[in-house]
Structure formats: structure tokens, C-alpha cells
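Slide 14.
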Amino acid sequence: MERSDLALECGALLSIPTEHEFVEQGGVRFLVRILSNLIRKEKALKKLDEQTSSGDRTFNPFLPYEKDLFVADISDTHVCILNKFNVVERHVLIVTRAFEAQDTWLTLQDFVAMWTCLSEFDGLIFYNAGKIAGASQRHKHLQIVPLPCISADIPIPIAPLLTSAIFQDSIGTIASLPFVHALARLDFAEDNSPLQAAEAKLTCYYRLLKAIGLPDTKSISSNIQSGAYNLLATREWMLLVARSRESFESISVNALGFAG
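Slide 15: predicted structure.
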């Protein structure tokens, strides 16, 4: 919170004001945020497009990052920074130090970084695996928003649906969801090291990928993603959603859309 306040004061953090309302459908109380001003973000994205179209396909919008957005060094491979154009307070990014493409598979190091952060504070981690999944930047980055999103009773809008999941061989599906997905329960043990937790979660991630039809052994070994998907994870569960298009009726949807 202190870092966010300082970044706001110096102008490094450009929070986008929003209004919100709730829309109830299918047992989910969706939280709909209405953005009042996207001009600053649109200008920044236009500048990024100009830089990437100049020929440098590995242009990195995160590193070197703005020092006033820095939150913490997570590991030798990852750093945590504030999301410059946030609509949710304390929205942070987990960014690889060296360039990796957003459409490559997640690695053990990614999961170590995730669980290092979750051991410090409770949050919802999400990953947009490629442009079709809603990613706007090519450099690999995961994102975290703090919990609860709504209330202590319902920390995430889709939480009530998760209780209806039917599991087979540790992989769950929810009958009311009309898209390809796979759910797994997680055991968050605070006495485990981030590495031990990450190894278990990486195995779970591979099982979920297989359950939604991704990938084959060849694509895993080459780290070339064979299809787009969204990942959402908390201390208690991990959800993967297969993606075939980036928008619905002109509305772009990323991983948070599947959180409600």
C-alpha cells in the first residue's frame, strides 16, 4: 500500500477511475467495472505499438522498469512491480527479468515466483497466455489482485460455482459453465518452501493443460504453446480455460472475465 501511495504521488502510477455495479446471472454475482477514462492507457499503448513496429520484436515494456513502480525482487528470474494502469488497488505484476514470450508455457520458475507472492499475501493470480487469451504485452508477466474482491464470504465472484464442481481423477468441471475448462483443488501449506509448492503446482498445471486439450509432449519440450488459455489460481484452487477467440461481441475478455 505504501509503495502504491508513493507511486501515485510522483505520477508513476496512473490509476484509471472506475464505477462498478453487480449483475447476477446463473448463480454468479458478476462485478462489472465501468472505466471512465482510457485516454492515458491508449496513448501509452500507441507508443508501445510504434516501438514494437520499429523492428525490435523483443522490446520490453517492463524492464528496465520505472523505479517508482518497483515492489520487490522475487527471485533471480522474476521481479514484482505495480501495474501502471491499474483499476484495482495493489494490482501487481510478476515479470520475468529476461525476455520470455507471453505465449510460451509456464515454468517451474514462474510457479516459484507465484507461490513466493502467495506466501506473503492472499490474492488471485491470473495469466493471459497469448493474444487470443487477452494478453496486451508480449513479455511474459503474471498478475495478482488482492483478495477479497467482493467480501470475506465471497472473495471472488465465481466462488459459489466452484462448490458445484464434479471431480474425476483430481480434475474438476462445472456443469453450468458453457466453455472448456478444468479445475483443481490446491493444498496451500505455509510450512512448504516456495520451491516445494511450485513443483507440486507445476505438475497440477500440466494435468489441467491435458484436461483442456493442451498440449502434446513435443510442444511442452520445445516450450512453444500449442493453444491459447487463461489461468486463474488462489491458495485453494487453480482453473484453466481454453480460448479460441479474444473477444465476445466486441468486448475483449481476459482471465479476470472468467473470475466474474
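Speaker note: The chain has a mean pLDDT of 85.
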